[in-house]
Each structure stands twice: as structure tokens, then as C-alpha cells.
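Researcher: Here's the sequence for the chain we discussed earlier.
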Amino acid sequence: MLYFAYGSNLNHYQMQNIRCFGSRYLKSFGLKNYKLIFCHPNKSNKFGYANIIKKKESKVAGAIWDITKEHEKILDSYEQFPTIYQKEYFYLREKKVMFYIMHKYFIKDPPKSYVDTINKGYEDCNIDLRIKYRF
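Model: Thanks. This is the structure I predict for it:
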């Protein structure tokens, strides 16, 4: 199955060696009409994590991965589906692509180590973008 990753799941080492051993990176991809934000579902939590929200004329830099049903179960657990993140889908060349999105959240700054992981993912996917965040 196809999975659209953004945030820390762009990082090839993390995806292929920690989360979803055997998953295959296919290509970088920009998801139109969405914007990357950092947030957390718990207002009292200090740090936020990657999420996307609908925003016309925006684009989220991400990657398409080929994952198995077993990988999906691993990601469901990691993303705390369906409690925190929900699944949504779009079609790419007539193939269904799954992604995770959080609908209830509070905007929070991400931890520096998390931003570093995402930036390494951009590098891994040959995406010419770095998150510049003041800490």
C-alpha cells in the first residue's frame, strides 16, 4: 500500500530501520492544499509534533512510501490511531494513498531534536527545504 509521510517519517533511517523495516521509499511528493504545522492534542504538553491542516494554495513536502499491512499496524500504533491521528486518503495515478492527520490540537513548538530528524528526512528525500525554527 502507499503511504504519504511528512514530519519525522521522511527520515529514511527511522522508517526503514526503526519503524517499518523493509518499507520502500518511492519518491518525494508535495501534497497540495495542505500546510505543515506543529501541535499536540494535550494543551499542557510542552512540545508539538508534525501535523498537516487544509490550506488552499499551500503544499506540504513529503514522501511516498510503499508499506505493508504490518507496517500500517506499526504506524497506527506509533501515531496513536484513531485516538490522536486519523487516517485520510488521496489518489495518485489511480492508487489510494493513506496519510495521518490530527483534527483536535493545540499549536506547540517542536523540540529541536525533532526538527533535526525532519530536516534529515528532507535531505534523505532530496527535498530542498529545511525547517528553520527558533528555540
